[in-house]
Amino acid sequence: MPAKGEGQKIPGSSVNLLSRFAENAFWIGRYVERAENLARLIAVTEALSAGNDDTESWTSLLQTFFDEPAYEATGRSRTGLSISRWYILDKDNPNSVISALTLARENARALRHIIPTEMWRQINMLHGTVEGLTARKVTLPRLNEICESIRLGCQAHFGVVDSTWYRDEAWLFHKLGCELERADQTTRLMDISNFKLMALGEDGAIPTGAWWNSLLRQASGYQAFRRKHRVNVDPADAAAFLLFDSDFPRSVRLSMLQAFSRLDDLETDYSAPPDQALVVARTALATRMQDRPEALVGHGLHTYLDEVQRDLNGFANAIASRYFGSG
Questions:
Q1: Domains in the chain: how many in total?
Q2: CB 243 within 8 A of CB 190
């Protein structure tokens, strides 16, 4: 949903930013990051399905977002082409790329007096590029190219933000939203590859690192992973890298450490400390990241990813309640 907030200062702080503007900034970060990661998820699903309409692989994408009932209601067939078009182009799908970018632009419009002109221009260009896509243009052979274009456009947004936006409290909320969304989406990206790996094991095949090689590439982590692991990829090593590495930008752990740092900055620089509910949610998430499961493949990994996602949602809701008066 687009950000909604009251025209009041953030309670219990000396912050000059209105709570609704903080929420706008937060959701710009979340929505652009979501669009990029949707493109990643679609691309990795296409790679796992070997460029065809493998129903099982594409169904796993629907299951990752709990979108099976919504998709069934459209009456569309469960083909890779139909599902990918739904996730890229369909404005009635709240989890589509075009929906995320439309909401990012609406939130940016509310902050025209705060954000840099370059940032506003970039969001409009990115939105226009995706809106200009038609169903005829979105084909399986072109899917990777289209997803790469969306990813690069989103990355350009974050580059513009980091090079032009004044480092004030609005910037902090934007980064906080981005980091929360990145952590959540990395777990979803992992779950899709793990789903396929489990399916291979159930069929009696010997799981290899091929699926995780593909995942690492789609997470922009292949070269970084190779700096630590010179031999063939072990699925558990790849999972540990994406979850717990402290130096890889897209890891869940680093995303959460950066989000915690934004909260610390809000408290020390802008007198906006967390309330008790946010402290509890933050502690629960930090504890979850410390309590690593013994098995980082198969059902054990799936269960752990579900638990991380629940803690991330609780953390996000506590942030909304504390700073935006919602949740």
A1: 1
A2: yes
